[in-house]
Design brief:
By secondary structure, this protein is mostly helical. Helices cover about 65% and strands about 5% of the residues.
Length: about 200
Protein backbone atom coordinates (compact mmCIF):
# COMPACT_ATOMS: atom_id res chain seq x y z
CA UNK A 1 0.00 0.00 0.00
CA UNK A 2 1.26 3.43 -0.83
CA UNK A 3 1.11 6.25 1.68
CA UNK A 4 -1.21 8.08 -0.71
CA UNK A 5 -3.85 5.36 -0.31
CA UNK A 6 -3.74 5.72 3.47
CA UNK A 7 -3.99 9.53 3.12
CA UNK A 8 -6.97 9.25 0.78
CA UNK A 9 -8.66 6.84 3.18
CA UNK A 10 -8.05 9.28 6.05
CA UNK A 11 -9.55 12.14 3.99
CA UNK A 12 -12.82 10.22 3.80
CA UNK A 13 -13.41 11.68 7.27
CA UNK A 14 -13.54 15.12 5.64
CA UNK A 15 -11.35 18.11 4.92
CA UNK A 16 -8.16 18.23 6.98
CA UNK A 17 -4.88 20.09 7.26
CA UNK A 18 -1.57 18.27 7.11
CA UNK A 19 -1.31 18.75 10.88
CA UNK A 20 -4.80 17.26 11.38
CA UNK A 21 -3.87 14.31 9.19
CA UNK A 22 -0.67 13.70 11.15
CA UNK A 23 -2.64 13.73 14.42
CA UNK A 24 -5.31 11.54 12.85
CA UNK A 25 -2.72 9.06 11.63
CA UNK A 26 -1.33 8.81 15.13
CA UNK A 27 -4.78 8.33 16.65
CA UNK A 28 -6.42 6.09 14.07
CA UNK A 29 -4.35 4.45 11.34
CA UNK A 30 -1.16 4.10 13.38
CA UNK A 31 -2.28 0.55 14.15
CA UNK A 32 -1.56 -0.40 10.55
CA UNK A 33 0.32 2.44 8.83
CA UNK A 34 3.06 4.72 10.12
CA UNK A 35 4.11 8.02 8.58
CA UNK A 36 6.00 11.02 9.85
CA UNK A 37 4.49 14.50 9.45
CA UNK A 38 7.22 15.32 6.91
CA UNK A 39 6.28 12.27 4.82
CA UNK A 40 2.62 13.32 4.94
CA UNK A 41 3.33 16.89 3.81
CA UNK A 42 5.50 15.69 0.91
CA UNK A 43 2.85 13.18 -0.14
CA UNK A 44 0.07 15.79 0.05
CA UNK A 45 2.06 18.08 -2.26
CA UNK A 46 2.53 15.23 -4.76
CA UNK A 47 -1.13 14.25 -4.53
CA UNK A 48 -2.22 17.83 -5.12
CA UNK A 49 0.02 18.03 -8.20
CA UNK A 50 -1.58 14.80 -9.48
CA UNK A 51 -5.11 16.07 -8.87
CA UNK A 52 -5.96 13.49 -6.20
CA UNK A 53 -6.57 16.15 -3.54
CA UNK A 54 -7.30 19.86 -3.63
CA UNK A 55 -6.10 22.37 -1.09
CA UNK A 56 -7.63 25.60 0.02
CA UNK A 57 -5.80 28.18 2.06
CA UNK A 58 -7.35 29.36 5.31
CA UNK A 59 -6.01 32.75 6.34
CA UNK A 60 -5.34 33.09 10.05
CA UNK A 61 -4.49 36.28 11.90
CA UNK A 62 -2.25 35.19 14.73
CA UNK A 63 -0.93 32.02 13.21
CA UNK A 64 0.49 31.05 9.82
CA UNK A 65 -2.06 30.36 7.10
CA UNK A 66 -2.96 26.72 6.75
CA UNK A 67 -3.97 24.54 3.85
CA UNK A 68 -6.98 22.27 4.16
CA UNK A 69 -7.02 19.22 1.90
CA UNK A 70 -9.97 17.31 0.53
CA UNK A 71 -10.38 14.45 -1.91
CA UNK A 72 -11.18 15.27 -5.52
CA UNK A 73 -13.34 13.09 -7.74
CA UNK A 74 -10.08 11.79 -9.24
CA UNK A 75 -8.89 10.91 -5.73
CA UNK A 76 -12.14 9.09 -4.95
CA UNK A 77 -11.83 7.09 -8.18
CA UNK A 78 -8.21 6.24 -7.33
CA UNK A 79 -9.25 5.12 -3.84
CA UNK A 80 -12.04 3.02 -5.30
CA UNK A 81 -9.55 1.40 -7.70
CA UNK A 82 -7.21 0.74 -4.78
CA UNK A 83 -9.96 -1.02 -2.79
CA UNK A 84 -10.81 -3.14 -5.85
CA UNK A 85 -7.24 -4.42 -6.22
CA UNK A 86 -6.30 -7.53 -4.22
CA UNK A 87 -3.65 -6.53 -1.66
CA UNK A 88 -0.21 -8.09 -1.63
CA UNK A 89 0.40 -10.32 1.37
CA UNK A 90 1.99 -8.42 4.22
CA UNK A 91 5.60 -9.14 5.07
CA UNK A 92 6.92 -8.91 8.59
CA UNK A 93 10.34 -7.38 9.20
CA UNK A 94 10.87 -7.15 12.92
CA UNK A 95 14.21 -6.58 14.65
CA UNK A 96 12.89 -7.91 17.95
CA UNK A 97 12.03 -11.26 16.39
CA UNK A 98 15.57 -11.56 15.00
CA UNK A 99 16.91 -10.84 18.51
CA UNK A 100 14.63 -13.48 20.03
CA UNK A 101 15.66 -15.91 17.28
CA UNK A 102 19.32 -15.39 18.31
CA UNK A 103 18.75 -15.23 22.09
CA UNK A 104 20.58 -18.53 22.77
CA UNK A 105 23.81 -17.04 21.42
CA UNK A 106 23.15 -13.48 22.53
CA UNK A 107 22.68 -11.28 25.56
CA UNK A 108 19.63 -12.88 27.17
CA UNK A 109 19.06 -10.02 29.62
CA UNK A 110 19.16 -7.41 26.86
CA UNK A 111 16.67 -9.41 24.77
CA UNK A 112 14.52 -9.90 27.84
CA UNK A 113 14.55 -6.13 28.39
CA UNK A 114 13.57 -5.51 24.76
CA UNK A 115 10.66 -7.94 25.03
CA UNK A 116 9.49 -6.32 28.27
CA UNK A 117 9.73 -2.89 26.62
CA UNK A 118 7.65 -4.11 23.68
CA UNK A 119 5.00 -5.39 26.08
CA UNK A 120 4.89 -1.93 27.65
CA UNK A 121 4.49 -0.26 24.24
CA UNK A 122 1.73 -2.71 23.31
CA UNK A 123 -0.14 -2.06 26.55
CA UNK A 124 0.11 1.70 26.00
CA UNK A 125 -1.26 1.30 22.47
CA UNK A 126 -4.09 -0.90 23.73
CA UNK A 127 -5.05 1.79 26.24
CA UNK A 128 -4.97 4.46 23.49
CA UNK A 129 -6.97 2.27 21.11
CA UNK A 130 -9.54 1.53 23.81
CA UNK A 131 -10.03 5.28 24.36
CA UNK A 132 -10.48 5.73 20.61
CA UNK A 133 -12.93 2.82 20.58
CA UNK A 134 -15.02 4.48 23.28
CA UNK A 135 -15.04 7.76 21.34
CA UNK A 136 -16.17 5.98 18.18
CA UNK A 137 -18.92 4.06 19.96
CA UNK A 138 -20.25 7.17 21.75
CA UNK A 139 -22.11 5.03 24.29
CA UNK A 140 -23.51 2.60 21.72
CA UNK A 141 -22.90 -1.11 21.80
CA UNK A 142 -20.50 -2.51 19.24
CA UNK A 143 -23.15 -4.31 17.19
CA UNK A 144 -25.38 -1.24 17.09
CA UNK A 145 -22.42 0.85 15.93
CA UNK A 146 -21.46 -1.67 13.25
CA UNK A 147 -25.01 -1.65 11.85
CA UNK A 148 -25.78 2.06 12.06
CA UNK A 149 -22.51 4.03 11.87
CA UNK A 150 -22.03 6.16 8.77
CA UNK A 151 -18.52 4.74 8.26
CA UNK A 152 -17.48 1.39 9.70
CA UNK A 153 -13.94 1.11 8.24
CA UNK A 154 -12.15 3.00 11.03
CA UNK A 155 -13.70 0.75 13.66
CA UNK A 156 -12.85 -2.42 11.77
CA UNK A 157 -9.20 -1.40 11.43
CA UNK A 158 -9.16 -0.43 15.10
CA UNK A 159 -10.33 -3.96 15.94
CA UNK A 160 -7.35 -5.33 14.00
CA UNK A 161 -4.96 -2.99 15.83
CA UNK A 162 -6.34 -4.06 19.21
CA UNK A 163 -6.05 -7.75 18.32
CA UNK A 164 -2.48 -7.24 17.08
CA UNK A 165 -1.33 -5.45 20.24
CA UNK A 166 -3.11 -7.91 22.54
CA UNK A 167 -1.29 -10.71 20.74
CA UNK A 168 2.01 -8.83 21.17
CA UNK A 169 1.38 -8.74 24.93
CA UNK A 170 0.42 -12.44 25.04
CA UNK A 171 3.46 -13.47 22.99
CA UNK A 172 5.85 -11.25 24.94
CA UNK A 173 4.65 -12.59 28.28
CA UNK A 174 5.14 -16.13 26.99
CA UNK A 175 8.68 -15.32 25.81
CA UNK A 176 9.56 -13.84 29.21
CA UNK A 177 8.12 -16.88 31.01
CA UNK A 178 10.18 -19.25 28.84
CA UNK A 179 13.37 -17.23 29.34
CA UNK A 180 12.78 -17.06 33.11
CA UNK A 181 12.16 -20.81 33.30
CA UNK A 182 15.33 -21.53 31.31
CA UNK A 183 17.36 -19.15 33.48
CA UNK A 184 16.05 -20.84 36.66
CA UNK A 185 16.94 -24.27 35.25
CA UNK A 186 20.44 -23.06 34.34
CA UNK A 187 20.94 -21.49 37.77
CA UNK A 188 19.74 -24.67 39.52
CA UNK A 189 21.90 -26.84 37.29
CA UNK A 190 24.97 -24.70 37.94
CA UNK A 191 24.30 -24.65 41.67
CA UNK A 192 23.83 -28.42 41.95
CA UNK A 193 26.87 -29.09 39.77
CA UNK A 194 29.13 -26.95 41.96
CA UNK A 195 28.20 -28.98 45.05
CA UNK A 196 29.58 -32.22 43.65
CA UNK A 197 33.06 -33.27 44.39
Amino acid sequence: MALRDAVMAALLEGEASGYDLAKGFDASVANFWMATPQQLYRELDRMEAEGLVRARVVHQEKRPNKRLFSLTDTGRRALRAFTATPPKPGAMREDLLVQVQAVDAGDVEAVRGSVAERIGWARAKIARYERLRERLLEGRGEEEYLVHAERVGPYLTLMAGLAFERENVRWGERVLAVLDRRAARTDTGAGSGSGRG
